[in-house]
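Researcher: Hi, I'm a grad student and pretty new to this. My advisor asked me to get structures for two proteins we've been looking at. I'm not sure of the right format, so I'll just paste the first sequence and hope you can take it from there.
Model: That works fine. Here's the first sequence with its structure tokens right after it:
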Amino acid sequence: MKNKLKGTGVAIITPFKKDLSIDFNSLDKLVKHLIKGGVNYLVVLGTTGETATLNKDEKLAVLNCVIESADNKVPIVLGIGGNNTYEVVNTIKNTDFTNIDAILSVAPYYNKPTQAGIYKHYKEISSASPIPIILYNVPGRTGVNISAETTLKLANDFKNIVAIKEASGNFSQIMNIIKNKPENFSVISGDDAITLPLIFAGANGVISVTANALPKEVSEMVQASLKGDHKIAKKLHYKIFNFSENIFLEGSPGGIKAALKHLSISEEFVRLPLEPVSRKTAKIITEEMSAISR
């Protein structure tokens, strides 16, 4: 499993048509674009996929489309998380995991549980899941941080908890995990802009938003970093750095959808309460893409 989660994973968007129905043709085009670009695995129905705005039937349809489009060429990670532990467990128990390699489960948001509550939340998920689990720590969105101590305890206590997507931005915390984790536990960057230093510190790769639009560039940077080719990795990192920052100027996934519209892969439509980025921000993003391609 550690090898399957090494390199570049992509938190894929959910494309919508103008009437805000799911655009499955664009989703198919996106998956093929990512695989052609050399990514290592796909993450479907994560927060970047606007999962909170999808109903149960839509989620299943998106998952099936991605599985069919990927055609067993890359592993697939499925987002299943929430702030109702027993609902998450029930979803896991009623999911067909054929062709799915792992679960990505975000920290329970809004409730602001204690570290003991977070530990017990993932303990229940671990007991229910027939496949490996990736923890997802993103306190800027959830309002709660999974501490290094809690991550390490989960990693040591449950064999099917195999990795963490770390998007806290707390280098001290992340390096504490990298230093003290079990050998087979992976630390994955959840923030494109700091993937390079995290890999140099010992992380295994990234689950990227940027790679939706720039799969080749992100994959090459990550592979160079993992190989220890600092000169090439640093050059590629700074080549895409501004783009990785600018796609979040007005939130996600509006920015990356503007980039995908520029590439004629999908439209920029998002579901409320999100809105497409402003024309000013879209122009900044497309200018960055043009600069990268030169």
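Researcher: Oh nice, that was easy. Here's the second one.
Model: And its structure:
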Amino acid sequence: MLKGKTVVLGVTGSIAAYKIANLARMLTKLHCDVQVLMTQNATQFINPITFETITQNKCLIDTFDRNFQYSVEHVALAKKADVVMIAPSSANVIGKIANGIADDMLTTTVMACPCKKIISPAMNHNMLHNPIVQHNIEKLRHFGYEIIEPVNGMLANRDIGDGKLPDEQTLLEYIIREIAYEKDLSGKKVLVTAGATREKIDPVRFITNHSSGKMGCALAKAAMLRGAEVTLVCAHMDIKPPMFVKTVHVTSAEDMFNAVTALADEQDIIIKAAAVSDYTPAVTYDSKVKKSDDDMKIELKRTQDILKYLGEHKLPGQILCGFSMETDNVLENSAKKLESKHCDMICANSLSAEGSGFGGDTNIITMITKGGCEQLDIMSKDDAAHKIIDKLKTL
């Protein structure tokens, strides 16, 4: 995913420095060139050899160190970097950078970097909330630095408060968002629906389906990584929504209809990937004396067809994509939906095909447009999401 990309990790004097070894490992597994810069104080918490072993690059500390085989002076490294992340970032280093002080290899390189710079503060919560530190953080924001908010938890001195470095996966997601994909959807607004709606029968039971929300989340994440402003309207899902997308949580088909239609006019692309329950139950009882399951009658009323409504009210230039899950005559039935729902594209898949359907991590999709059909091989839902977006961009 990150092959050909260079990430500069700046590590400062904080007990949380040990986490960055795992972040470096995660980046190298994505085929990224990882260059680590450490302050002298950071070497008291973790040995530079750890980073050198993981990254296969010399860990730089001294600005005037010439004990390496090729030129990696601060200007050369700054030109090479695609993104810089300083994590953990101490109050000392935040203050230096905010005020233009460059007195070691880390701060000197950061000053010379024209790429995006991400700062993840980690320190005692009282220090974090010191007005001077907060002023310096805001100063960095003003100059275009991105700040990752510390999390709340137990700190090194056993205090509970904010000031803790986020986990390595969170830090990785910030880097991936910045450099993994070309921002070809920059300036676009994308709405995606995901998950399984639930229709209440009584206080205990409901009607639903087997949708996990994985395909919808993959689409939302792919659009976000490519620069779009993404809103995810999600019903019940087996996974967490992706980072960096706005989420609107709903329960029933009516909830989803109301949420989607309220947002639809603002969107450039709408992708309905949610499996919406087709019927809403209305419960009645024969017995006038006691309500029991034996006396229960359930009448099913069709829910509002969200995709058809969106198609009938589609704005000029707006792109609408729906999903079609079929057991028989997949292509024929999906092609009919393309017309009847007034969509620009239908993504068809079969419940009976191995590697496709609900719950799994892979999918087999046929993209149907007025121009014809394009069948994708079995692939991860993340990869399929990018293929779908590639196709939507051509419409």
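Researcher: Is there anything I should tell my advisor about the second?
Model: You could mention this: The chain has two domains: 6-179, 189-393.
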